[in-house]
Request: fold
Amino acid sequence: MNKILTSLNTFALILLFLSFVFSVFSITTLKVDETQSIKVNFYELIEIAEQPKRLSGTKPKESIQEADLNKVEENSEVKKSLDFEKYKLNKPDIKRELSKIKLSKEREVILKISAIIQDKISSVWIKPNSLSKVLAAKVLINLAPSGEVINFEMVEPSNDKVFDESVLIAINKISFFEEVLGLDRKLFESNFRNFKLVFKSSGEIE
Amino acid sequence: MEPIGIFILATICQFYSCAQNVSDSVERMQYASVAGEEYLEGEKIDTNLDDKVYFDFDKSTLDADDKNLLEQYLPAIRKAKIVRLEGHCDERGTREYNLALGERRALEVRDFLIIKGVSGKKIRVVSFGEERPIKNASNEKAWAENRRVEISLY
Amino acid sequence: MKRSLIILIFLSSNIFSLLEIEIIKGSDNLSKVAFVPFGIEENVNENYGEQISTLIEKNMLLFGEFENLDKAEMLSFPDSEEDFYYRDWKIMGVDYSVIGKINSVNALGNLNISYSLFNINRRIKILEGEIVGRENNIEGIAKIISNRIYEKITGLKGIFDTKLAYIVNSDAETYQMCISDIDGKNEQILFTSAAPIMSPDWSPDRKKIAYVSFENGLAEIFIQDLASGERESIQALGMTNSAPVWSPDGKSLALVVSFSGNPDIFSYSINNKRLVRLTNHYGIDTEPSWSPDSKKIIFTSDRSGSPQLYEINTQSKRKKRLTRDGNYNARGRYFPDGKSIFFVHGNDGNFQIATKKLSSRFIETLTSTSLDESPTISPNGNIIIYATKDGSKGYLGGITLDGKSRFSLPVKNGSVREPAWSPLFN
Reply:
């Protein structure tokens, strides 16, 4: 029984480590699928919890094993003790960790709303056939806290008339981004008061 | 082993020299014969042999059965004035490529006949690519029948 | 077409830079256009108003590039800017409205027509024009107006006055070389033969067509003048002459000559009848086609063991292999911008139309039927028409390059194949 539990624990640790590695890779570029972006943040949360362990090397593992040896009877109890161990270890960093958790939660919200905005624009943008030209146009959007588009400006046109026009038509079709409604004011001001949409003619990998 | 090797070498040499000598005259003959093609149709020689050899997709190589059939033709070919080889393909792939492939197939038969001692001067080669299928259908059986070289003697 | 675009969001941690959201995927919807029946002045035949807007509408919808607003759903029928209210169209989800008026018809039967195009989302008039044309050529007038509207909306050349050449095989003994307007009207039979006809190709001035005919028992290239109907055989030496394609300047043909049964690519100058060899390989080299700048010729060769596409620089004669994926890539043609190619791609026994950017190694398959061949592209690079089969009968299919529209051309009496899209009318 003990052996099984120990191996289970080791397995869990390996999983945690793998998820940490995965999260590192997935930070820079995120697929926009809503569920996926949430997933990424889930990994981030784990990452934060992981960190002290990494700092203290194999120690936590030993302590977990000890805990297992001492309290074999109930799984829930084991879990409790694990959490307890972690918090104990984290004590000096707890404030920093909490702020990090908050940050990643903000990040999650930003990602979610960005994905919704992206879908919304994609659903109205009728992309012209630009043949093989690689074009990009940047539009600055200015929102009111209500989500209303107060102003927009093409700050970096592609200089392809038809492409730029298609972009302007798409933005003209949308007058509200209701999604930002109810957003934490600070979060809104720092992210969605002004933001840019980058329209690209092709998604070349090269 | 050695005699066999020499024999093969000799055959290859023979084939090459024949092919070299023949190619130019074949072209001229081809053009000279263009107008007379229909008139020739009337004197077709009946051999009671299967008049077609078949090929694999995008291939122009002759297998043992094909060679066997062609060998049976040899006596009749020696008597004939003209041997007409018509290459065909199945409908798959592109038309112009198939035109070239049909020609390739007919030439493969011509080269075999030349190795067997038939004078290249009698041989007319033409390709219809995928333009003249025997079976106008889109299935493996039809395709297999359409990938062929038709032999006719005059 | 598989459109699994990876969409990325870049979040910046830097406080001073703004959040940037990247948009790569566009909508699957089409632009919606309202074609309002044209107004008429008193002395004009009252049918003309609706007739011309209907003709324009038919043209614009020909290849499925746009959606229309049904006349029954229109809230108003303005024929001038003063009567035009954007909100009437905005609430119907219209992106563009076309209005117009037939102002007068004179004693010679000349119609004076004015027309305007409005961008509803941007609330601006983007096109205004006037045209004078003959009463009995109302279709021609509609084509000109359609071209101008199309160009304004898409930024691409209008193609409604282009033509299509094709081969019709109505029975085993009847082959016809035909041309028609791109909408299928005004079909003309250029040549009929009991022997196969192949590979039609338009001269850049649209006055001649080169093709292969077997009328003399083997593949032979002819050039036919469309106005006079005169035919001229190119007596290039060799057993087989095939796959003629005009150079962009119209002075030469790239073609295939098979000396001693070895097909190679040649350039044939039409005026002095000189033949210049471009490839020399024991494998099959065929299906040449010029790049729009005339500097390169793409061709099919089986020198690697299977048919693949190559291009040769006509000056340096340097060759470059263009395709590597799959064991059948043939009959390549360049896009009008010269940066991509389209061709027939064989995959698992299916032969489909595919495209590839020259700068990329990825092949993108456009069609989903299994015996697709002879693709030809619209001069504006937006539509491909190709030949395919339904049972044993050949018909022509088409697809827009954004993959949003697939269509098939009206069925003919007989098997239709080898479409060739004419150049633009200069």
